Every structure is written in structure tokens, then in C-alpha cells.
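Action item from last week, closing it out:
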Amino acid sequence: MIAFLGVLLVIWLVCVVLGFVIKGLFWLVIVGAVLFVATAVVGFVKRKAVNR
């Protein structure tokens, strides 16, 4: 599960970078950033739950 979340984080990060590189895709920066943060929070919560 943690590996899957790591892959998702990389995908969202690529979306953010592509949004910055391609000027017309600013919306991709916003969507990628929101999904990156959401995935990071889910991963953090899951990691804390596994350690208990």
C-alpha cells in the first residue's frame, strides 16, 4: 500500500512539473498539487496507523 502511494506521489509530481513547463496547463499544476498533498496526507495517516 505504501509503495502504491509512493507511485501516486511521483505521478502527481510529474503532473505539477508538466503544468509548469507547458504554460497553457496551469490547471494541471493546481490539480497535481492538490492530489499530491491529499496523497501525502493519506500516506502519513496510513503509516501512523501501521506503526501502532
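Closing note: The two ends are 16 Å apart (CA to CA).
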